[in-house]
Design a protein that fits this description.
Number of domains: 2
Number of helices: 10
CATH topology of the largest domain: Rossmann fold
Strand order of the largest sheet: 2-1-3-4-5
Structural class: alpha/beta
CATH class of the largest domain: Alpha Beta
Helix content: 40-55%
Strand content: 5-15%
CATH architecture of the largest domain: 3-Layer(aba) Sandwich
Radius of gyration: 18 Å
Largest sheet: 5 strands, parallel
Shape: globular
CATH superfamily of the largest domain: Response regulator
Length: 215
């Protein structure tokens, strides 16, 4: 039996996932649920799980930050990211941060079962289309989008800026000084060759990066 912890702040999603996995005749069972980042970390630390299914957007903290903490707490725990966002936006970044797989919430139920089995057995799971994309990136025949040049922290701040948060609000949320946020903003502008904050917002909207981090 594969013991699964589901982390998603939407009750409907958690119920749907549970129903899908209940159809595996006991092979995969949801043994726990978490609705925010703190609960995820507490439950991961409190007991052993075979697979964690983690939403990328959780209240209080981003899924990326939660994933990094989990890697320190339980480095061997397979984490399958389940997200409403397309793979090309986040999959590679999440895999580099330590995720075992990435699955879009619009995927067919059997894909979820397949993904859980694969990461539980030590494999990595992405769609065939994204796997091909990753190969192209490795062979340098693919132009990466500008936001892929950003560090994880720079990317997080870009998303928060694009969602309308001020440097003071971002600093408070990330426990960083306003001066540090301004430094990150300058790096973002330089790497992406932007000259105004409006360009950041426009880019984020066009590329579906707005609201990827909780308010």
């Amino acid at each position: 039996m594969i013991k699964v912890l589901i982390a998603d702040d939407h009750a409907v999603v958690r119920r749907g996932l549970r129903q899908i996995l209940d159809d595996t005749d006991g092979e995969i069972r949801v043994m726990g649920e978490a609705v925010n980042g703190r609960e995820v970390l507490d439950k991961v630390q409190a007991q052993d799980w075979d697979v964690l299914v983690l939403d990328i957007t959780m209240p209080g903290r981003s899924g990326l930050d939660i994933l990094k903490d989990i890697r320190q707490l339980k480095s061997a725990l397979p984490v399958l990211i389940l997200s409403m966002h397309a793979e090309e936006q986040f999959a590679t970044r999440m895999l580099k941060a330590g995720a075992s797989g990435y699955l879009n919430k619009e995927s067919a139920p059997e894909e979820l079962v397949k993904a859980i089995r694969k990461v539980h057995n030590g494999g990595k799971y992405v769609s065939s289309a994204h796997a091909e994309r990753m190969v192209l990136e490795l062979t340098d025949h693919f132009d990466k989008p500008p936001h892929e040049r950003l560090s994880d922290r720079e990317f997080e701040i870009l998303c928060l800026m694009a969602s309308g948060k001020t440097p003071t609000q971002i600093g408070k949320e990330l426990a960083l000084s306003v001066k540090t946020i301004s430094t990150y903003r300058s790096r973002i502008m330089e790497k992406m060759k932007f000259s105004t904050s409006a360009q950041i917002t426009h880019y984020a909207i066009v590329n579906g990066l707005v609201n990827n981090y909780p308010a």
